[in-house]
Specification:
It is built from 13 helices and no strands. The chain has 319 residues and is mainly α. It is flat and about 85 Å long.
C-alpha cells in the first residue's frame, strides 16, 4: 500500500514537471516589464552589501550553480527555491507579506522558498514513515490515512518558515518604528535650524548607529545618486519592509514638500503619534503580563487548596 502511494506520488510529480516544461505559463508584457525592473533594482541593491540593511531594500538571489556553494543539500535547496520563485513570478503570485517579512530578516525570497520545499519534503517523508511504524506496531490504519497524514505534515512543515519569518520581522519592525520616531524628531530639528529637507534627511540619519538608521542612510544615498525624490524613496522603503507609518509619511510629505514649515509640523506630529502608539502598545503588553500573573496566582492558590484538602477528602471517602 505504502509503496503504491509513493510510486503514484513520484509519477504524478514527473508528469507535472513534464507538463510545465512542455507548456510553460506566459505573462503579459507589462507584467514581464515590471518584473524586469524589480529584478534590476534588487540586483543593484545587492551590490551595496549584505546584512539586514541591504536585504531590507529587496533582493533576488542569482541562479544557483555558482562557486562557493555549500553542501549538496544547500545546493538542492537553493535550486528548488529559485525554480519555485520563477514559477510564482510567471503566474503573478507576489507573496507580498512574506517578502516584506524576509526583507527584515536578512534572507532572500528564494532561500525561504527552498527551505519551505525542504521542510515540506521532510514532513511528507515523516508522515509516511510514521504510517509504516504504526502498521508495524499492529495499529491498522484506514485506507488513505497514510496519504492524509503525510500531506498534513507536509503542509504544516511548509508554513513553518513563514511563522519564523513573521515573528522575527515583527520584532525588527518594532525596532524600526522606535528609531523612526526619533529620526523624525531629528529631521524636524535640522529643518528648524534653516536646513533644507534634502540636507536635513541625510544629516539626521548620520547621527545614529543602529541598523534602522543605516537602512535609511542607504536608501537616501541611492535616491540621491539616482536623482529620485527622497520622500518617494522613503515611501517605497516603507512599502518594501511593511512599515505603514513610513509609507504614509512619504506620500504625505510629497504633497506639501514645497512648504518647509508644513513639512516640519507634519514630521513633529507624526513623531508624536508614533510615540503615543508605542506607549499604548507598551501599556497593552504590560496589561497582558499583569493578567497572566493574576491567572498564575489563581492557579497556584487553587493548587494549594487542593493540596491541603486532599487528605481530608480521602479520609472522608475511606469511611
Amino acid at each position: 500500500m505504502i509503496a503504491a502511494v509513493v510510486l503514484g506520488a513520484l509519477l504524478g510529480a514527473v508528469l507535472f514537471a513534464l507538463l510545465l516544461r512542455l507548456a510553460p505559463p506566459t505573462a503579459a508584457p507589462l507584467v514581464q516589464l515590471a518584473h524586469f525592473d524589480a529584478g534590476h533594482d534588487a540586483r543593484a541593491t545587492a551590490a551595496l552589501g549584505a546584512g539586514p540593511a541591504a536585504a531590507a531594500i529587496g533582493g533576488t538571489s542569482a541562479p544557483p550553480g555558482g562557486a562557493g556553494r555549500g553542501n549538496r543539500l544547500t545546493r538542492v535547496q537553493s535550486s528548488s527555491g529559485w525554480w519555485l520563485s520563477r514559477q510564482l513570478t510567471r503566474r503573478g503570485i507576489g507573496y507580498t507579506s512574506l517578502r516584506q517579512d524576509l526583507a527584515l530578516t536578512g534572507r532572500t525570497f528564494e532561500q525561504a522558498l527552498g527551505r519551505k520545499i525542504t521542510l515540506a519534503g521532510a514532513g511528507l517523508l515523516l508522515g509516511l514513515l510514521a504510517s509504516v511504524g504504526l502498521n508495524m506496531a499492529g495499529l491498522a490504519l484506514p485506507a488513505g490515512a497514510p496519504v492524509v497524514l503525510a500531506l498534513v505534515l507536509a503542509a504544516v512543515f511548509f508554513f513553518l518558515p513563514d511563522l519564523d519569518a513573521r515573528a522575527e520581522a515583527t520584532r525588527r519592525r518594532e525596532e524600526f518604528r522606535r528609531a523612526l520616531g526619533a529620526y523624525l524628531d531629528l529631521v524636524a530639528l535640522e529643518m528648524a535650524g534653516s536646513a533644507a529637507p534634502a540636507e536635513a534627511l541625510p544629516s539626521a540619519a548620520r547621527i545614529g548607529a543602529g541598523w534602522p538608521l543605516a537602512l535609511i542612510r542607504d536608501t537616501l544615498y541611492r535616491a540621491t545618486r539616482g536623482g529620485r525624490n527622497p520622500w518617494t524613496a522613503l515611501s517605497d522603503l516603507g512599502q518594501r519592509i511593511g512599515v505603514g507609518e513610513l509609507r504614509d509619511l512619504g506620500q504625505l510629505i510629497a504633497l506639501v514638500a514645497h512648504d518647509g514649515a508644513r513639512v516640519r509640523s507634519t514630521l513633529t506630529a507624526r513623531a508624536q503619534t508614533m510615540r503615543r502608539h508605542e506607549l499604548a502598545d507598551l501599556e497593552g503588553k504590560a496589561g497582558k503580563a499583569d493578567q497572566s500573573m493574576r491567572v498564575a496566582q489563581i492557579l497556584i492558590g487553587l493548587g494549594f487548596i487542593a493540596f491541603l484538602g486532599y487528605p481530608a477528602v480521602v479520609a472522608v471517602l475511606s469511611f
